[in-house]
Amino acid sequence: MKKLLSLGLLSAVLGGFAGLVSAQDSQLDLIAKGKQVATAADCQACHTNAEGGKAFAGDYPIQSPMGTIFTTNITPSKKYGIGNYTEEQFSRAVRDGVRPDGENLYPAMPYTSYSHMSDDDIKAMYAYFQHGVEPVEAPTKITALPFPFNMRIAMAGWNMLYLDSSAFKPDPSKSDEWNRGAYLVNGAGHCDTCHTPRNLMMGEVTSKPLAGGMVGPWYAPNISADPVSGIGNWTQAQLVEYMKTGRTLGKNQAAGPMAEAVQNSLQYLPESDLNAIAFYLKNSTPVRDPADKQAADSFGPKQVNVENGLRGAHPYNANNTIIGGAALFSGYCASCHQPDGGGSKNQAYPSLFNNTATGLTNASNLISAILYGVDRKVGDQHVLMPKFGEGSYVGQLTDAQIADISNYVLTNYGNPDIQVTEHDVAVLRGGGPVTLLAKLQPFMAPAMVICVVVVLLLIFWLVRRRKTRTR
Q1: How many CB atoms lie within 10 A of CB 384?
Q2: Are 297 and 229 in contact (CB under 8 A)?
Q3: Residue 451 labeled ligand binder
Q4: Where does heme c 1 bind (predicted)?
């Protein structure tokens, strides 16, 4: 009898231990899945300050048309981060854009896309941020947009207009690969957030999905299946290569926010997910821009060597001769991109023809690459083009000089129908185009005061009129 009791006790202990190990393994698996989901959602790009900040500690400045928005600390710090969030509160913040204190988030946080994420993915991501991320005990700068954009309560009304909180539903008529791609593009991966144009109220123009839009000083190009305006002439393999490495010969190189997406997110996704995204994009609704006459990557080469027109143009002892687009290109660009614009043999310095940055009808990416440079790390490869804007260690160029270089490149290697002005450069140097809503901001407070005064006067007049009638 004692032996039976002992065996039973041992069995119970072993069973309990096995159950504990199983529970721990299950939790570790959940955390690992959560890390994959957070990587696909590219949380690190916005919640890690590029200037030496710790992972997910926030304080990354997002330049929005309404002002600078500083991202929050999403580490499990109980004082400065989300360590006190319940899973329900975490889900509501991620998918509905509402903090635990009831305040609304700004849609710079792409909850309009995350709203379609599954319960399982949210659960896994919550486990990762609570148990798989190191807490960082550091505050972040407070976002202080000008009136009336600082009234977060207004976002409740905006959400009623533009937030689709319905869960993602697979299309049974489509393949599993298409549905996985749709989930990533329009949900966790939030490609639609940047690549779909915005209206006056900064809501997505859903009638033009993935048709391109400005993101600060950069242009997120059309990635619909249209062969001229979009990526319809790319192969699926080229799209996968671009997402994994940030470059595809004869097509494009990732810079700005897209470089961050490749560096922090896309290069780590499994091949199956990259292929699903590419497959979905290749089969998405094509959206054509009437201004586009040919594919952006189809311009060039034109066999133009900048040096041929410069040699002997000035005496050997002349000064201040680096003026005009050709001389500026020769002085600042040709050493890397070559005098003929063809780039280096290994294309580490890319060709300036057959390049979407120089072929698009929107020259913002060409200008911004000069202003802000290119900085992208993929695997053990670090792609770096120095900036020529403020703080450049190579040479700070003026708006006029950058316009001259841009026009030389466009005329000789890219889309010759596009011309860049000093004003165009100044706008992008200042953070990007200002929307009509932002332009009206200075007049909103006076307008509201006038409206209140008018309403009060109307009430006063109605009261007096009523009193007059009752006498």
Answers
A1: 11
A2: no
A3: no
A4: 43, 46-47
Judge whether 337 is annotated as a binding position: yes
Cα 42 to Cα 29: distance, rounded to the nearest angstrom: 20
423 in a labelled binding site: no
Residue 191 is assigned to a ligand binding site = yes
Rounded to 5 degrees, φ, ψ at 263 are -65, -40
> Lowest mean pLDDT: which of 46-50, 209-213, 301-305?
301-305
Q: At which residue do the structure tokens 């065996």 appear?
A: 7
Nearest to 452 by CA among 440, 464, 460: 460
Write a three-state SS string for the chain: CHHHHHHHHHHHHHHHHHHHHHHHHHHHHHHHHHHHHHHHCCHHHHHECCCCCCCCCECCEEEECCEEEECCCCCCCCCCCCCCCCHHHHHHHHHHCECCCCCECCCCCCHHHHCCCCHHHHHHHHHHHHHCCCCCCCCCCCCCCCCCCCCCCHHHHHHHHHCCCCCCCCCCCCCHHHHHHHHHHHHHCCHHHHHCCECCCCCECCCCCCCCEEECCEEECCCCCCCCCCCCCCCHHHHHHHHHHCEECCCEECCHHHHHHHHHCHHHCCHHHHHHHHHHHHCCCCCCCCCCCCCHHHCCCCCCCHHHHCCCCCCCCCCCCCCHHHHHHHHHCHHHHCCCCCCCCCCCCCCCCCCHHHHCCCCHHHHHHHHHCEEEEECCEEEEECCCCCCCCCCCCCHHHHHHHHHHHHHHCCCCCCCCCHHHHHHHHCCCCCCHHHHCHHHHHHHHHHHHHHHHHHHHHHHHHHHHHHC
- Contact between residue 277 and residue 393 where contact means Cβ atoms under 8 Å apart: no
Q: Is 190 annotated among the ligand-binding residues?
A: no
- How do residues 310-365 score in pLDDT, each as one tens digit? 776 666 767 777 789 999 999 999 999 999 999 998 888 999 999 999 999 999 99
The token pair that represents 60 in the structure block = 């990354």
Mean pLDDT of the chain: 90
pTM, two decimal places: 0.88
Confidence of residue 440 (pLDDT cuts 50, 70, 90): low
Answer whether 431's CB lies under 8 Å from 214's CB.
no
In which region does residue 224 sit, left (phi positive, over 0), alpha (psi from -120 to 50) or beta (all else)? beta
Report the alpha-carbon distance of residue 90 to residue 62 in Å, rounded: 22
Question: What's the rounded Cα separation, in Å, for the pair 418 and 168?
Answer: 40
- Which tokens in the block code for residue 417? 């129908």
336 is in an annotated binding site: yes
Q: Read off the pLDDT of residues 49-70 as tens digits, 9 standing for 90 and up.
A: 877 789 999 999 988 888 889 9
The whole-angstrom distance between residue 195's C-alpha and the CA centroid of its chain comes to: 8
Instruction: Record the tokens describing residue 7, joined without a space.
Output: 């065996």
